[in-house]
Amino acid sequence: MTETRQVRWGILGCAGIAEKAFIPAVRESHNGVLGAIASRDAARAAEWRRRFGFERSHGSYQQLIDDPGVDAVYNPLPNDLHAEWSIRAMKAGKHVLCEKPMAMNAAEVRAMIEAAEAGGVRLMEGFMYKFHPQIARTLDILRSGRIGEPRSVHSSFTFRFDRDPANYRWSPGQGGGALYDVGCYTISIARLVFGAEPAAVSAAARVDPVTGVDTTAEALLEFPGGRFALCESSFEAQFQSRLLVVGTDGLLRLDRAFSAKDFDVAVRIARGDSEESAPVPKANMFTLMIEAFDEAVLGGAPPAVPAADAWHNMRAIDACFEAIRTGCRVAIPPEGV
Asked: Are residues 115 and 173 part of one domain?
């Protein structure tokens, strides 16, 4: 690996996100290569090998994990399989980039972090939005004080999702529902903007009577210092991928906070009656994420986004589910309590 200076990627399963985003991004990257693809359907894995140019294909996930020609594993499996197969991969000495949300609960994420530490491998959650240049620009603007002190965040990720019984997003047992699927983004960006962890959560959801998953979820996160974040996720609403930060002296808005791939975007700032726009050119955030992870693997450095961030995000998601279940405000204990 150190001779070629490229990370040889193995992918668990033939997921849509792998086909549409991850594979093209690896091929575009300067420090990654497609090593192997695995599917429980060996014929499908072989077809993907020929179609996309993988070096090898495997008829089981375990065979890919045991493949000595794989350095890092991308795990885009259904949410309930994230912890199990990521831990198996890390115990085999593989670095892991796991799709969001990292797991089904914070306890599973903690077990994944412990496996990474024990194996001396890199583990990161696949929040590609963080690697788009608009996020760095947003954080720079907020730190500069141009909108004053951020007091509240409104984050929304919603879209119309047709019911497909075969899709795990409609299965509660597999980690389906809007809060897991897209609500994780809205909570993540609120934590990123405030640079802090929520102290308490209130939440409510509309639950689909047929499948039992939350089709719409609304969460109010309370942050230290009297700051708040309203986080909206839905499978049954007009498309939104939005961030609004309300400061003491102005507003900041991203219209494609989580889905900026292939779009020219801008950071918009309003102060009083005036509004300005800071354009951000197109950027493949998947490629940027992969290259950053590859650099950590090749250089032996920590990932750009530490795995502990996934644990904090999952603690907030756990609290949201408890608030939905009980109808009560849920306090999140400080770390270590």
From this structure: no
pLDDT band at residue 1 under the 50/70/90 scheme: very low
Q: Are residues 71 and 157 in the same domain?
A: no
CB 251, CB 244: distance < 8 Å: yes
- The domain spanning residue 35 has which CATH number? 3.40.50.720
Using CB atoms within 10 Å of the CB of residue 241, give its burial: 0 to 12 exposed, 13 to 18 middle, 19+ buried: buried
Task: Look at residues 277, 190, 172 and name the one whose alpha carbon lies nearest to residue 232.
Answer: 190
Q: What is the DSSP string of 222-245?
A: EETTTEEEEEEEESEEEEEEEEEE
What is the set of active-site residues? Answer: 100
Residue 229 β-bridge partners: 153, 221
pLDDT tens per residue, range 229-260: 999 999 999 999 999 999 999 999 999 999 99
What range defines the domain where residue 275 resides?
Answer: 129-283+315-331
Residue 337 within a domain: no
